[in-house]
Amino acid sequence: MKEDLDESLHLFVVLSRASEWVMAHAHRDIRRHGLNPTEYGVLELLYHKGPQPLQQIGSKILMTSGNITYVVDKLEDKGLVRRRPSEEDRRVSFAEITEEGREFLDEAFPSHREAIAHAVSALSPEEKQQAISLLRKLGLAAKENFKCAPIPGAKQP
């Protein structure tokens, strides 16, 4: 039991450090293009998924909704995104990528893909597939455990 707890903690530390360094590669490439990672995430979401309600963008890119307005404002100022009111519900506004934003990502995305590939190049294609499968399994189980189980060792009310 103690050995399993130690291995779980070791996995957490190794996974966190690996994630931190892979993200460092991605963030450095994003900053090279004059955006911050959140701006890039919003722009990439709109590029690949089309117009999105402002209220839903945060959950799709793992960001608090309070920052979305600020990020969309900055992208709008750069001419990469525009707001469009909903035709069905005037309380809802959509963010959509502009042609300039699409051209920006058409140019930036290939080097971003290469930066990510470089960051994970220590793994063979087969190892990448194994990692994807194992991390997906881990993430889905952690999500499910978070939703329906009490925290182990915590005092219950």
Automatic annotation (TrEMBL):
It comes from the Bacteria. GO terms for molecular function: DNA binding; DNA-binding transcription factor activity. InterPro entries: HTH_MarR-typ (IPR000835), MarR/SlyA-like (IPR039422), Tscrpt_reg_MarR-type_CS (IPR023187), WH-like_DNA-bd_sf (IPR036388), WH_DNA-bd_sf (IPR036390). Pfam families: MarR. Keywords: DNA-binding, Transcription, Transcription regulation. One of its GO terms (biological process) is response to stress. Gene3D superfamilies: Winged helix-like DNA-binding domain superfamily/Winged helix DNA-binding domain. The keyword Transcription regulation applies. Residues 8-140 form the HTH marR-type domain. The keyword ATP-binding does not apply. This is MarR family transcriptional regulator.
